[in-house]
UniProtKB/TrEMBL annotation:
The keyword NAD applies. One of its GO terms (molecular function) is ATP-dependent NAD(P)H-hydrate dehydratase activity. InterPro entries: CARKD, Ribokinase-like. It comes from the Eukaryota. This is YjeF C-terminal domain-containing protein. Residues 1-123 form the YjeF C-terminal domain. It comes from Aegilops tauschii subsp. strangulata (Goatgrass). The keyword NAD applies. CDD domains: YXKO-related (cd01171). It holds the Pfam family Carb_kinase. Keywords: ATP-binding, Lyase, NAD, NADP, Nucleotide-binding. GO terms for biological process: metabolite repair.
Length: 123
């Protein structure tokens, strides 16, 4: 199957990597990681087998007046991919950034509405 990992920020890159690579090792066909831009290069450098989407944002990189539009564009980008996944894993390496948590909450709501099985790790 196809797995999406929603996680990974500038401080925490190992957890999403291990979640994604473990999915491949136990038989998943494709493993995608949706992470912040700061985490993407690091996660991708761990393994060329992972498909990395650097689309999440943290508070420090988004102005207050842009938060709603950035959050909407993040959700729209994830929705483009969502129907392809057999399940999503939410949480590895997300950290505690409030804006990032709000964006991930929107992603989780959409996954629930789309009946996509979701594993939640530490959120």
């Amino acid at each position: 199957g196809k797995i999406a990992i929603i996680g990974g920020c500038r401080e925490y890159t190992g957890a999403p990597y291990f979640a994604a690579i473990s999915a491949l090792r136990v038989g998943a066909d494709l493993s995608h990681v949706f992470c912040t831009k700061d985490a993407a290069t690091v996660i991708k450098s761990y393994s060329p087998e992972l498909i990395v989407h650097p689309i999440l944002e943290e508070s420090y990189s988004v102005r207050d007046d842009e938060r709603e539009s950035v959050s909407s564009s993040i959700l729209a980008e994830v929705i483009k991919w969502m129907e392809r996944f057999d399940c999503i894993v939410v949480g590895p390496g997300l950290g505690r950034d409030s804006f990032l948590m709000d964006c991930v909450g929107n992603i989780m709501r959409h996954a629930r509405q789309a009946n996509i099985p979701t594993v939640v790790d530490g959120v």
